[in-house]
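Complex record, four chains
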Amino acid sequence: MPKTKAAIIGASGYTGEELVRLMSRHPSLELAAVTSRQHAGKRAADIYPYLRPPQDLVFSNPSLAELPALAEVFFLALPHGESMHHAAPLLEAGRTVIDLSADFRIKDRERYRQYYKEEAPAEEWLQRAVYGSPETNASALQGAKLVACPGCYPTSVLLALAPALMRGWVRPDSVVVNALSGTSGAGRKADVSLLFSECNESVKPYGVGTHRHVPEIEQELSRVSGAAVIVQFTPHLLPITRGMLSSVVAAPSGALPSQQEVDAAYAEFCSTRPFVRYCAGELPEIRRVVQTNRCDVAARVDTRTGRLLFFSVIDNLTKGASGQALQCWNLIAGRDETEGLPL
Amino acid sequence: MPKTKAAIIGASGYTGEELVRLMSRHPSLELAAVTSRQHAGKRAADIYPYLRPPQDLVFSNPSLAELPALAEVFFLALPHGESMHHAAPLLEAGRTVIDLSADFRIKDRERYRQYYKEEAPAEEWLQRAVYGSPETNASALQGAKLVACPGCYPTSVLLALAPALMRGWVRPDSVVVNALSGTSGAGRKADVSLLFSECNESVKPYGVGTHRHVPEIEQELSRVSGAAVIVQFTPHLLPITRGMLSSVVAAPSGALPSQQEVDAAYAEFCSTRPFVRYCAGELPEIRRVVQTNRCDVAARVDTRTGRLLFFSVIDNLTKGASGQALQCWNLIAGRDETEGLPL
Amino acid sequence: MPKTKAAIIGASGYTGEELVRLMSRHPSLELAAVTSRQHAGKRAADIYPYLRPPQDLVFSNPSLAELPALAEVFFLALPHGESMHHAAPLLEAGRTVIDLSADFRIKDRERYRQYYKEEAPAEEWLQRAVYGSPETNASALQGAKLVACPGCYPTSVLLALAPALMRGWVRPDSVVVNALSGTSGAGRKADVSLLFSECNESVKPYGVGTHRHVPEIEQELSRVSGAAVIVQFTPHLLPITRGMLSSVVAAPSGALPSQQEVDAAYAEFCSTRPFVRYCAGELPEIRRVVQTNRCDVAARVDTRTGRLLFFSVIDNLTKGASGQALQCWNLIAGRDETEGLPL
Amino acid sequence: MPKTKAAIIGASGYTGEELVRLMSRHPSLELAAVTSRQHAGKRAADIYPYLRPPQDLVFSNPSLAELPALAEVFFLALPHGESMHHAAPLLEAGRTVIDLSADFRIKDRERYRQYYKEEAPAEEWLQRAVYGSPETNASALQGAKLVACPGCYPTSVLLALAPALMRGWVRPDSVVVNALSGTSGAGRKADVSLLFSECNESVKPYGVGTHRHVPEIEQELSRVSGAAVIVQFTPHLLPITRGMLSSVVAAPSGALPSQQEVDAAYAEFCSTRPFVRYCAGELPEIRRVVQTNRCDVAARVDTRTGRLLFFSVIDNLTKGASGQALQCWNLIAGRDETEGLPL
C-alpha cells in the first residue's frame, strides 16, 4: 500500500524533531517535506543525523502558496498565532491539517483573546476544527480535515479525570490541579530561565492563575462532564527533560463512590483505549511513560477527607504532542490507533 | 565564653551528617560526641573527611546509662520509636534534648499509634515536649529541656500558611497540599526504590492518604489557627537531592482578602522572622534555599476562582531538620536566632 | 514463520528488564519463560506492568535440570560466576546460550582468576564461546551455540578504536581510556553508594587500576589489532541513568595519519555496520544514543600533540548489554542484524 | 577595623553572583558597588533577593573614567577582551585589580592571539600581572596590584599535578587530561546548547584540541615543573550545575615513584595549603567540594602500566573562580588565606 505523503511545518523545535523521529517508523506516512526558517537549505540528515532521515530530504522555507503542493497531510509544529495562517491555504486546497499549536483549540473567541492576547482564527475554521483527543473524541476524528491537537497539560488532566467526569462523580467547581512538567515542554528557546544551571536541582511554580492551558482544560473537562468545570491550575517546572505529572484533587458531586466503583470505571475506560493504562496497585511514575505514547492514570478515594484523587503521567513530547498527533492521523485515516507508535 | 558541649546521637544518616557540618561552624556549641552503631570505633575524620571534624573525635556506641555524661545538650537523629528510649535517661539526668524524630511531636496518643504503629512516649514527657517551630512557638522554646523538632513537610506547610491562619482567612476543611521532596528526605537507606536509576528523570506520588506527617500538619495548623484543620496531603518524590516545595490551595473562610492585605500580612510576619522571606514579585524556587536555613514563601489571591494559593520552599535537611534544630538551640539558650546558621 | 521460544534467566535486574522490553517487539523471538529467585511465582505483568508482557507469563525459579525444557534460546542475565553453572546443562541439551555475564569472555584463565577472584568455566566451553561483538566478530557468530556478550565498557572502547586498530595506526602500549558510565551500569542493587542522594550532582572515578573490564578490553583490542595492547583504563560514575562515553587518547604506531585518512577509514567501517555511526562534523553525545542500539563514534587527529583521539557513546543497557545480545541472536539465526532493534 | 571597599564589575553572570554571595560574608571587604549593563538602575536586592545584599545597593553602569572612584579593590567579572580596558584606568589610578577573565593570564602574546583571536593587553601590564594561584604563587601575591585569576580547568589540573611536578616526577610530553565541567562553567548565556533539555542525561566532549585553557595549563605546569609541558586536554560538559573533575594520566620522567613516596609528597604539599585536601584512602568526588573553596586531590601509582594517575575536584564557581579571587585578596592584604571562605 502506498504511504501518504506528510509534511512537517516548523521542524526545528522539540515537537518537530519528535515528529521526524516518529514518522520515520510510521507504516502509513512518508516524510515528504520538512520546513524551517532557521534550517532552510540544510539537509535534514545534517541537522538530525541521529534520526537518520531520508538522505535527500532538505529543509525548505516555502511561501504559503507553495505549501499545498508539498504533501497530502500537514503537521503544523508552529507557535500559536502562526498556525492559523498556514492552515488556511492548506484547508482551502483540500489538504488535511493536524495542528499542534493552540490556534484551533479554544471555541470561545473571547477566552482565546484573553489568554493568548491575539485574535482567534476565522469562525468557520474554528467550528470545523476537531479537538484531537483520541480517547474522548474518537468518532469526530474519523475523516477529519482539521485537527486541533490538545496541549500537554490538558491531555494529562483530561485523561486523569475523564472516567470520573463521565459518571458525574466530580463536583464541577472543586477541581484542583497541581501539574509538573519537564523542561522540553517550554520548547527549544534560547532563554536564560531554561538553562541547565537555572533549572537543575530546583522546582518552581509558574503561570499561577494565568497559564494559557486553563481555558482549554476547562473547555474539555466541561465537554466530557456536561457541566461547567472550573479548575484551580498550578503548573511547576521540573528538572527533567521529558515527562509530566498531574495530581488532581476534587470533591464528589454527590455520595463518595467506593474505591471498587472507581477502579471498575477506570478499568472499563482503559479497556478500549490502548494508550491509557490504569494503575490499580501502584501509583503512576513519569519514567514509566517517557518515550512512549502512553498515559498511566490512577484514581483514589480518600474516605478520611471525603475527596477523590486522580493522577496521570505522560511524555509531554509524545502523548502530549507529536505522538498524539500521529494517533489522530491513524484515526483520521481509519487505521489502527496504535500503528507506528511506542506503547 | 565557653562553648556548650553537644552530642549527636545517631550521626550516620543525612540529618546527622548535616548536624556535624553545621555544628562545626557554630559559635556556642562544641561537638563533644558522636554516636553510631554502624561507625562505632571509627574516627569522625575518616567517615566525614570533607567536613573536617575534630581529629580526635571517634564514633562511640554508648549504653543508655553512659549517655548523659557525654554532653550537656543532645541532638537525637534517630529513627522514630528509638528516640523516646534515649531521651528518658537524658531528661532524668537534667540534660537538654533536641529530638529530630517524630516521637514527641504528636500530642494525641491515638493518632500517633494509628500513623506510626507504635505506642507514644510517656504522657509526662509528651506534655513537656515543646514543638520546635521557632517562627510560631518561639516563647515556649526559651529554656526548654525537651524539643520535638518539626518534620520537613510540616515545617514547609506551616510556614506557608501561618500568617493566613493567624488572621482566620483559611477555611479549615479546605486545605489541599501538594508537596514535593528531594530524595535525601527518605534518608540514607539501602533501598532499591531510592537508587539513582529508579528516581532520576521521574516524579511519583507516594504515601497518598497515609503519610505520617498528616497528623502533625493538622495538629500544628490547628494550633496556629485555633480551628480544627483537615488537610488533603499528597507528597511526591523529586529527582533532586535536597529541597522541598509545598503548593497549597485553600478556600477563604469568609470574604476573599485582597492581594494587598495578604502581602502586608506576610511582610509583617517575615519582618520578625529572619529565616522567612516573602516573595512578593517572584515565586519561590527550591534552588534559592538549598544549603540555607531559610524558608521562602509566597501567597497569591486568585480572584477568578475565589481561592488562596500558598507556596513555600525549604532545604529539607537544613530548615526541615538539622538547621532548625540548631535554631531551636539558639532560642533555648537565649542567643540570637540566626547564630551559626546559613541565611 | 513461527517464532523461536526464548527464555530470560535472571530477569529482575536492569539488563533482564531491558531484554523483556526488547523481546516484546522482536519479530523472531517469543518470550516463553522468565526466571527470578526474587520474583518466583509472580506474574511478569505485575512486576513490569508498563512493559505489557504476556498476561499469563509467570516468573519461575526452575532447577538446573528443568531449565532446558523452557525454551530453545536462553539469555542469561545472571551475575558472573552463576552463568557458567546455568550454561552447562543447557549446552549439553543442545540449547543456544547467549550469556550477558563475564563468565565466558576471558580466554586467559589466569587473568579471569586474577580479576574476578573465581575459577573460569571448563576449558572446553571457554574455547567454544564466541565473543559477541557483531561489528568485529560477525562470521563467528553465525550458528554459534554459546555467545559471551561483551561488557559495556569493552563494547564502547572496541568500537571507538576498531578501524584504527585494524589499520595498525595505534601504538599498542599507548592507549589511555577515560570512560564515564550512567548508574544503571552498576545494576539494581540495594547499595548506599548507588542512592540518588549519593550519585546526583557528582562524578567520581572508581575501580582505578583494578576494574574487571581491563582484561576484556585488552584481549579484544589485541585480537582486532594483532598486537598486545595495554590500556590505562579509568572509569567514572556519572549522574545519568543510562549511557556511556569513552574518551580515548593514543599515540600513533608510525607516522600520524591525516584526518582525511581517519575519516575515510571510519566511514568505510561504518558503511557495513548499521549500528555504528561516524560523527565527522560533530562530536558524539550520550543523549543521541540512549534507548537505541547504536554506537556513535568519532576520531580526531591532533597534529599539535601528534596523537589520535577517539570517542564513542552507547546506551550501556542496550548496545552495552541487552540490545547487543539480541543483535547477536539475529546473526546466530542468520537474520537481518537490525531486526527488532531501535536504531 | 574598617573594611576595604570593593566593587564587582560585571555582576550579572554566575561568577559575579558568586562574588556577591561570598563578599556578603567576608570580614574585611565591603561590597560598595556592583556594575552591569543589563541591570543598570535596578536594586541588587531585587536581582538577587535570596542573597540579601545591602538594601540600598543599586547596579550602575559607570564610564571607565568614573570607575576608580567606586572602590579600592575591583573584581572584574567580565568577558575576556573587556577586562583589559577596564583594568587600565583602575591601575593608573592606583587601584587594586583582581581580574577573573583570561586577559592577563597568558604571558606569551602570540599564544594569546592564537587561542583568543584578540590582541593581548599592553606588555607593561601583562608583565606586572601576578598569576593568582595561591597554592603555587603565594609570595608573588602579597601586595600585588594586578592579579590574573586562574581559569577553572587550569586550577584543577595545576593542583592535581603540582606536588608531582615540583619533584620532577612527570615526563613533560606525556600529560593526558580528561576534564569534566558542570554547565555553570559556560556562563549565564542564552544559548540553545546550554538548555536543560540539551545538557541533561548526557555528556559530550567539546573544544577538542582548541580549548582556550590549553596555553594557560601548559604555561602554569611548565612554570611549576621548570620544563616545557605539553598537555593533551579534552574537556567534557557534564549534566551538573557546579563542579569539575580532572582525571590526569602521565608517564614518569624516570623511575616510577612508589605510592608511599607519592602519598608523602601530596600530604606535605597539603599541610601548608588549607584549601587542598589529599584523598589517601578514597577517591575525590565532585559533590564533596561543591559550595566550598576546597580542591580535593588524589594521586595513584599504577605499577601494572607504569604510569601516574592524578585526580582533582573543585567547585568551578568557587575555587575555580570567585572563591579563589577572594583567596587572592586575602593574600594581597596579608590576612589569613581562609578568611571568609567556605572550607
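Note: The interface with chain B takes residues 176, 178, 180, 200-206, 208-209, 230, 232, 234, 236, 238-243, 245, 247, 249, 283-288, 290, 300, 302, 304-305, 307, 309, 311 of chain A (CB under 8 Å).
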